[in-house]
Design a protein that fits this description.
Blueprint (H helix, E strand, L loop, with lengths): L2 H14 L1 H39 L34 H8 L17 E2 L7 E2 L2
Antiparallel strand pairs: 1-2
C-alpha cells in the first residue's frame, strides 16, 4: 500500500462516518479556539496591570523600611534610635539618599503602628 492508498482509505472512512467526523472537527475547533481565547485574555490582563502600575509610578518608586529580621542595628544612613522603633531618618540622611545615582526625589513618610487607641473622653481600647 502506497501513500495515496492510505489517503484514499482515510477519506472513505471520513465519508462513511459523517457524524463522528463532524463531531471530531467541532471538538478540535472548540478546543483550539478556547486555548487561543484563554491565552489572549491572560495577555490582555497582564498588559492592563502593567499599564496601571506604570501610570501609578510603581515601577519607579522604592520604599526603604527597617528590616525586621536584622541581626544588628548598624546603618549607613540615619542616626541610631530605639531599636524597637528602627533608625531615624533625618535631613542628612535624606540628602545622602538624594545623591544616589538615578534617585529623583527622597521624601520621608510617617506611618504609625498602633496597637491601642484612646479617643478623647473614652478609655483606651486595644485594636485587633
Amino acid at each position: 500500500m502506497g501513500f495515496f492508498d492510505y489517503f484514499r482509505v482515510a477519506l472513505k472512512n471520513l465519508i462513511r462516518q459523517k457524524t463522528r467526523t463532524f463531531l471530531t472537527i467541532i471538538a478540535i475547533t472548540v478546543g483550539s479556539l478556547s486555548l487561543i481565547l484563554m491565552a489572549s485574555i491572560i495577555i490582555s490582563i497582564r498588559q492592563s496591570l502593567v499599564d496601571q502600575f506604570q501610570q501609578l509610578g510603581a515601577f519607579s518608586l522604592v520604599s526603604v523600611v527597617k528590616d525586621p529580621n536584622a541581626v544588628n542595628n548598624n546603618s549607613l544612613i540615619g542616626n541610631s534610635g530605639d531599636s524597637s522603633e528602627g533608625k531615624k531618618i533625618d535631613e542628612a540622611a535624606l540628602l545622602a539618599l538624594k545623591t544616589i545615582p538615578h534617585v529623583a526625589e527622597a521624601t520621608p513618610v510617617i506611618s504609625p503602628n498602633a496597637n491601642t487607641i484612646r479617643l478623647e473622653g473614652q478609655p483606651k481600647k486595644k485594636l485587633g
